[in-house]
Amino acid sequence: MNRREWIKSALLSAGAISSGSALPQEQVxxxxxxxxxxxxxxxxxxxxMPNILWICTDQQRFDTIQGLSTSIVKTPNLEKFMGxxxxxxxxxxxxxxxxxxxGSFLTGRYPHVTGLRANGQRIRPTERLVPRILAxxxxxxxxxxxxxxxxxxxxxxxxxxxxxxxxxxxSHDISDQxxxxxxxxxxxxxxxxxxxxxxxxxxxxxxxIDPKYTQTAWCADMAIQFMRQQRSFNPWMFSCxxxxxxHPFYPTEEYLSHYDPAKMPDxxxxxxxxxxxxxxxxxxxxxxxAGGDISFAKTSAEEHRNITAAYYxxxxxxxTEVGRMLQVLEETGQAENTIVIFMSDHGEMLGDHGMYLKxxxxxxxxxxxxxxxxxxxxFKGGTKVDSLVEMVDLAPTLLEAAGIPVPSGMQGRSxxxxxxxxxxxxxxxxxxxxxxxxxxxxxxxMMTSVRTQNxxxxxxxxxxxxxxxxxxxxxxxxxxxxxxxxxxxxxxxxLQKLVARMIETTDPxxxxxxxx
Length: 516
Prior knowledge:
By secondary structure, this protein is of the alpha/beta class. It has a single domain (6-17, 47-269, 295-427), classed as Alkaline Phosphatase, subunit A. The chain is built from 15 helices and 14 strands. The chain has helices at residues 3-14, 76-82, 98-107, 111-114, 130-136, 183-190, 215-230, 253-256, 279-285, 288-291, 301-331, 364-367, 394-401, 416-419, 488-504; strands spanning 51-57, 86-88, 91-92, 140-145, 165-170, 236-241, 338-344, 371-374, 383-385, 389-390, 430-435, 446-451, 455-460, 465-470. The strands form three sheets. Strands 5-4-6-1-7-8-2-9 form an eight-stranded mixed beta sheet, sandwiched between helices. A hairpin with a 4-residue loop joins strand 13 and strand 14. The longest helix is centred in the middle third of the chain and has 31 residues, at 301-331. It is globular.
């Protein structure tokens, strides 16, 4: 039996690998030495390979964390974490929708090359995910929560490729579309807890349950259980994929009570600003997801503030659970050799620009996300990096940190020089795309965007239109300068940059083996 088979057998015996059941949380025993265990793998330099705790929330904006750009949301644990981590203030997703974004940062490749450019598609089986590559180097990889690399709408069970996850606690969201297969619901049933019926046609609701029974807390419980059981079998990687603060805006009653709607900010929207912007924005103004969901136009000022309060309440619970996970790393003596990532797959409009949720547009509130990375003693903790970075950059970063060769197909650029303080420069632009990513629109939105520190340009194919923003003078992106004769040169410059980035993102695979 090789080391990997031995570890898997040991984890099965310990109950760490399950089909979805959660075990009672164990007490943390003292550290034990097991001289008969095969030694954990090391880098070629002889250093131990780091553990990785990868925390990814769903639909969380950049401006929702104390110490960055808000004092309203209560996030003391993340603020403390920032003091030890490298915080990226200009991190952008490659597409503002769930599945394609996740497929992109898990492979280090752009959505249009992974085969997963839209919700409802399945990532190509040949794509190599970070956990699969890590597993090939004897990491034990686990997940709790959402994966979303293949269709799972309407009760369809997500069809997994060879993703590398040995421990897999799947819970796509808080609905019960998958009887017996949403592991969070299975766990709730075993705890004797029955969720109250969700209200129909109600945007905001305080769920009358103990926060410890939420999907957010359950994801953290699964991560904690894994970290405690795995501490003697390093190295490991765990994806804690929390559904909050994704809509519906249903925090618990307890967390919702922390926020007074009357004190919430109004959405950043200028009446009439959508008039010269791509038509999809006007459609979503009247109802998100091409008219099928929450309508900004039909929502009162009071309801806007209620929604913001509920959204912030969900973010606060995320912060609570992050604090619990970080505490367990300390208690088990694993903090020093564990890379911790906190991030989100995309943002949330939250009423800004007259829209809710997400769609075919690239405003910063939708594409700019939190990104904090900690590795004590290795990364330059307590620093903020303002350089532009893309989420495709995460995959090569993690492999380089683990001492693993980066596959030739990865398109991201390692963040290691920024993390270690060796460089302050990284990219001069970020590239984003939205290629019919939501099936709801009658005319499929096909558009790409490029953003620099000072400008942002978006090109929409059908109907042919675009956006151009001067981010120095208009950081809120209210005034569209597309086809403005006074900004002809800037538009031409950004169009050329967009074309260059599109060419640059061409799939490097398959590799060339000979000259002809």
